[in-house]
Task: structure prediction
Amino acid sequence: MDILIYGTINSIALALMALGFALVYGISRVPNFAHGALYVITGFITWTLLRTLGLNYLLSIILAIIAIGVVGALIYQFVLIRVRGMATSEIIASYAIGLAILEGLRWGGFKGTTYTLPVFIEGSINIGDIPVDLHRILVVGIGVAIITFLWLFTHYTRVGLALRGMAQDERAALMLGIDSDIMAVVAMALGAMLAGLAGIVLLPLGNIVVEKGYDVLIQAIAVCIVGGLGSWMGAVMAAFLIGFAQILTTVYLGTHFQMVVALLAIILTLIIRPSGLFGQQKELEERV
Amino acid sequence: MKARNLTVLAILLAAALVILPGSKALAEKPIILGCPLSTAFLYGWDAERGIKLAVEEINAKGGVNVGGEKRPFKVEVIDTRDLEPGVPVSEALMAVEKLILEKKADFILGGPVRSEAALAAMSLLSKYKKVSILSTGVLTPKYHALVAKQYDKYKYCFRIHGEAVQLVGEMFANFTELKEKYGFNNLFIIAQDVSHARGAAKVMNKVALKKGWNVTGVEIYPTGASDFSMGLLKAKKSKTDIINIWMDMPESSILLKQWYDMKIPALPFGSTLAAAEQPGFWKATEGKGEYTLCNVVNAGNAPSNATPWTMKFYNAYTKKWNVEPEGLGSSSSYMAVYVLKDAIERAGTLNSDKVISALEKTDIMGVYGRLRFNPKSHQVIPSSDPKEGAVGTILQWQAGKRIVVFPKSIAMGEIKLPPWMKK
Result:
């Protein structure tokens, strides 16, 4: 029972961390290595609005998410657009931006363990005889809601359909009048907002620390590689696979092996099925 | 006009007479203190503040008397990042070497902070014959054991704060009391996957079994782990009374929040529990850290009246840095500077061998008791009585305050249990 409960929570948390990365890559084919930094900086923006400026919590969250969406769009418009299509340069440029954000935060004094956000709901309940705090249950609810929203958005809205069109075949989408650059900016903004939302939902469970940015990036990459780069549903499936594997490892092998799971998953996927579970990068397998 | 000129001249002369004696020391070649510290983490920034406060006080009083010549201290800090996950030990070694070769440090003070890095740096200190006083973070007993084992090679290395074996002893003194008072008998150990914590967990396990405790589990978490639910559930299922935590990573506050949210009926009793040491912990956890106990290694890192100097230091630190001393490394780093000053003045030179000899004869009443080094291992001599040696400090969070509960000689309160543990 405890494995089922905490495995689900862990999996949804991983899915939340990875969705933004998967979305940006799926549409613009840009691997956004600043993803972890966007996750962390949203936490700090919310903290500043809430604790320093004294704004209402909900208002702080909304403003932080809007702000991070704008930051994401600006990163694409002013930096990534210039290197689009050059995979190595995209990785270097986005990683450099992430590094600058994270180390800039550290340099600016955002260090230590005292930066925290309040949980959305206080208290805990027992499921069977397993205690679970209400915020973690809410994480599952929000995760499911975001995945559902993304599915509906990409299937029933004009922008969403355009994004899917881009993801499936950029040239065909261009022929149908979809501006690929604008869609890439939208995807990057949306990806940044998803990273920020994940931060706002998950950071109240602990504290906002710069180092989390690197950890989130690794987890997101692991999920996306296992799920298949470019596949959102693959990312969700992979999150469950890795999430439960981590919990099972903790229970049966020892907690100190927990961090190895994500990295091992990357290695095994690249050896056995380089395109991942639902990947569209078939050429990778052909090359291997 | 003439009278006015004379007045100005007299004022300038008087000012010069007041300023000159102090500024003479400042004009002399400074003694450079190289401080390799992980400045983004508590044990790093706390040590840096302690060192800078002491240096400021000493320089304000004219500096250090080196064979009749007054010389000021100058602090050079390099961020070793050795407390950060994934940063290799070589980074810290480069920092130490840079301090010695580029910054021309006369002495190394403070770190490296992570045990692995400090152990690796011992050979460097020996190579460059640089006297070092560790004052924060490093708890591994291997450090002073190595000095004792290969004295000629490692005689340059001193440590002025407590170490893991001492901490284990202090913990068990409290566990025994809790056993007698509440009938506790089950102990669950959670440690971070780093040298000092793994070592301490091993020692705790061994000693607990010897003392008749039932060790219900040992969980080692990698640095950066952020979910502790399964470990806590194991502790709950095994009817644990005390969860002994050895963890200096910031994520330890997640563990404590989870402990509170899950209402685990076991008392969290930590050591090097950096998150819980800080005064900001209460606000950061919105009170969920209440009842957490942690060992802050030496007195002065939390308010107490261990010696007349304790609160004097505590208040001076608070005044200068606008925050109270936050945890391990504050009082010991502050005292490291004073102890070094005392040794240099007695040696009358900066010569390493002579300063080592003087340090071995150190005997001063400091912020956390009588400070003396074991002449063979260069470890500060601990005691539960501040008149006899360096005293430790265990605090508990009670109603938003850090209350010192151990040792009894300096305690300001008693250990309390959370309401969901009361039988």
